[in-house]
Design a protein that fits this description.
It is a single chain. This protein has 219 residues and is mainly alpha-helical. It is built from eight helices and four strands, in the order H-H-H-H-E-E-H-E-H-H-H-E. The longest helix has 28 residues.
């Protein structure tokens, strides 16, 4: 809790910037995704130092996730889909943390991340579904999207576990120090490594996604 004010200030700066980039799209969004990709590759290289095979796998996940996010944004209803992804992953993280802290119980993967529990995973899945349903207040949310949310939450938790494994192997607490109070960019975006490609596939198959009543971007 000691770094909570720093975390809040960092979030207050980052979230509006990311939200504006998603909304506006175009070159602004492309530069944001490209910058994030480069920074995460740098952090990934640090975490996998001495293990070329692990770096190659990690780099493929990072580049694939960034390509998936960009591909989602430039498609039909792109801003709405990427916002759904962001809301879903945030809800998964919050729900997993809350359920894990309050319920506890059996560990999910103790050798990789000792604090993660099965209750946390279920809490994250439930929170992702609830957050997806609530998006209907700002537009329409098909039942299929609500049903898909828990599976996407599991994908997001998979990315979290992969990064936890890399940090445990490297003997570090955070992937970097880029974001005050939060650690590295990978620490905040690890869920996207696996959830973004999964959502890209879901959307490519023509499955319904939330439709939000967003105003048109200024340019």
């Amino acid at each position: 809790m000691g770094n909570l004010p720093t975390r809040i200030v960092s979030a207050a700066v980052i979230l509006p910037l990311a939200g504006a980039a998603i909304w506006i799209g175009g070159l602004f969004f492309m530069l944001l995704v490209a910058s994030a990709c480069a920074l995460m590759l740098r952090e990934g290289a640090r975490l996998t130092r001495g293990a070329p095979a692990a770096f190659i796998v990690g780099a493929a996940l990072i580049v694939g996730a960034c390509a998936a996010v960009y591909g989602l944004r430039v498609g039909d209803g792109g801003a709405e889909i990427v916002l759904w992804l962001a809301v879903l992953i945030t809800a998964t993280d919050v729900g997993a943390y809350a359920a894990g802290r309050t319920v506890g119980g059996p560990k999910l993967a103790p050798s990789i991340s000792p604090k993660k529990t099965w209750a946390g995973l279920i809490g994250g899945m439930a929170a992702a579904a609830a957050a997806t349903a609530l998006l209907g207040l700002a537009g329409t949310t098909p039942l299929a999207a609500i049903a898909a949310a828990p599976a996407l939450a599991v994908c997001a938790q998979g990315g979290d576990l992969l990064e936890s494994w890399a940090k445990r192997r490297a003997g570090v607490k955070d992937s970097g120090r880029l974001i005050p109070g939060h650690g590295g960019l990978l620490d905040r975006l690890d869920g996207y490594l696996t959830a973004a490609p999964a959502l890209w596939l879901y959307q490519a198959l023509g499955a319904p996604t939330p439709r939000l009543d967003l105003p048109a971007p200024p340019f």
